[in-house]
Amino acid sequence: MNDQTPKKPLLTADFDYHLPEELIARYPLAVRSSSRLLHVAGDTRMDLAFADLPNLLNAGDLLVLNDTKVMKARLFGVKDTGGAVEVLVERIIDHDKHIAHCHVRSSRALKLGQTVQLADGNMRAIMMGRAENLFVLQFDAPILADLERFGEMPIPPYFERDADGNDDTRYQTVFHDPAKQASVAAPTASLHFDETTLQALKDKGVQMAFVTLHVGAGTFAPVKADDLSDHIMHAEYAHLPQATADKINQTKACGNKVIAVGTTVTRTLETAHLHRFDGKLTEFRGDTQIFIYPPYEFGVVDRLITNFHLPKSTLLMLVSAFAGVENIKQAYAHAIAQKYRFFSYGDAMLLDGK
After folding, report:
1. 57 and 178: one domain?
2. 178 occurs within a structural domain
3. pLDDT digits (tens, 9 = 90+) for 314-328
4. CA distance 86 to 236
5. Which of 91, 293, 331, 348 lies most in the core, judged by the most C-beta atoms within 10 Å?
6. pLDDT tens, position by position, 164-219
7. Which of 249, 294, 244 is nearest to 265 (CA)?
8. What is the domain-level CATH number for residue 107?
């Protein structure tokens, strides 16, 4: 007999937990790969070091990484009225006309046609309109070049500090593509990888491939809807190259595992899965708004390397869908008890799919 009992809707509150303040990693460790690694396989947990990762993967497995580069997207300045303003460039819409969608913080919202002076007067922008919750600003010079010269690295707000010179390198992956400078947050699971670890993986026979997802500030935005089915994800640009799609298809055909490094890679691969042709992945390029939460069935990712995520975040919902809600709750409780370091500069997990 089929159970006709309606399923209880998943609530944002189901993904809450208490984290002691001292476990928030506000600064990176001296060595990237010296982080800890919690291996979660079903309801079992093993405390390891990130340097142990090559021992947990097999020759022929495929590690998929995000090669985006973080922009120095945060700017400070004043409005033409003299009031202080903070601008975070979310997405450059037109490079030739210097137009971007931006988050703007000020005591009073910018008005149409209002100008702002940024970076001690080295940059200037005019408010051209709104795009939902974002402001459309037109700058007076090429945006990326000026951000690189005058902007600050957009470290997460929970660091509760200003960015420093160390963040310029450590909040950036070692394998980023300089031509793909468009993210406002790092793909943080990738921050653990250094050249030593990458070489050890290659020596083990682990394959590597890349996708691109330009991370938006929405990655830190809390879910405001009580019922998860009411939440609408922010849009982010994603690209799965044909070469990476081919490697994934070959890896699957050989019976090896596809390991996604981070939730950004996971969202890219699962978006491409929705657009597969004849059962195979093919190149995907475009915006994704995929929202992965239980009981989502994964089509590509076999294992997931990820950090510990914010309470009530879409990222925590994604990993819960992947490894199981109860397994993740137990893993987080274990990590807190064992004093793992949390969030962007924190420790990592290797999750086996449920």
Report:
1. yes
2. yes
3. 999 999 999 999 999
4. 22
5. 348
6. 999 999 999 999 999 999 999 999 999 999 999 999 999 999 999 999 999 998 87
7. 244
8. 2.40.10.240
